[in-house]
């Protein structure tokens, strides 16, 4: 039987991770996978997570199953974190999922149950795994224009034009903040225009929010999601705790489905529980429990927010330093967008050949579309990267 298998496409981000690991050159720089690293190149366990884990070890009395939707306290805490008071709680159904990827997958599964004809519109570009999962599930997908490589900003007219071509009931997948891979984000005025087009066409929003707190702050980063949440009867939201709580390997995420009223929410909830049961029964609990403990304990929450803010401000500083350095070395403002972008990523607009040269000649690893993880830098490696970029674009 197994001889019938054929090779599956490699995930480019994960393949790059392995290549970097195997590279023995000293001074190599990893700007690939979206994992936060501090100035020493470490991905620390956040202080509040350590404290919550200690408390959990002391206090937890059972590892028996949770409900199919996961711990209700986790859902309450995450709904508050992401949605604030923008939507009545009884309109929101939610299931804990294995990370943000699990939330996206379960969201797509819910779409397929509710409307198998729906095409899912993704930004061009988007996180490659969105495209890959939809393809694997054999769901119809199309791309809407989003990023303008020549300016490093958003092709907003292109986006609106493409969305105007969607059919009623189609899903529009938006990034809540810190767009991955580009770093370019819609303003609130722009999201209002997008909402107007979507309402006009009867489109349904799905939001992937994986970097809340990495851009302009926890509430500012949730503003687009909240604006969308108040505008539609139905909204799907896939949220991840991997990055903002640093619990990558604990697989901690949540799918929320905003429904038009409490009755519809109960039906959504029943379907979402069913989807969890079919795919893995009970979702992982350890990370989720730490997260809800932190969010409901004022002291832990304050400490978590303080550490997250240090992370965010550190990335902003690196952005500014890189933009300044590139302006100086290239004698142009062509890379100023790096300081305007938000979140962990920026797409630099380099060619695949230039990206390859950075890897082979300079031991600098970035995703093939020239996405860099800003957190892979520190103040000493920013000038190294800037010099290498100036050199490859000068070639
Ligand atoms: C990324 O885009 O690098 C992260 O979201 C990690 C992943 O799973 O791809």
Automatic annotation (TrEMBL):
One of its GO terms (cellular component) is cytosol. CDD domains: AAT_like. Keywords: Aminotransferase, Pyridoxal phosphate, Transferase. Its cofactor is pyridoxal 5'-phosphate. The keyword Transport does not apply. One of its GO terms (biological process) is L-phenylalanine biosynthetic process from chorismate via phenylpyruvate. The keyword Membrane does not apply. It holds the Pfam family Aminotran_1_2. Residues 27-389 form the Aminotransferase class I/classII large domain. InterPro entries: Aminotransferase_I/II_large, Asp_trans, PyrdxlP-dep_Trfase, PyrdxlP-dep_Trfase_major, PyrdxlP-dep_Trfase_small. One of its GO terms (molecular function) is L-tyrosine-2-oxoglutarate transaminase activity. SUPFAM superfamilies: PLP-dependent transferases (SSF53383). Homodimer. Belongs to the class-I pyridoxal-phosphate-dependent aminotransferase family. This is Aromatic amino acid aminotransferase. It comes from Salibaculum griseiflavum.
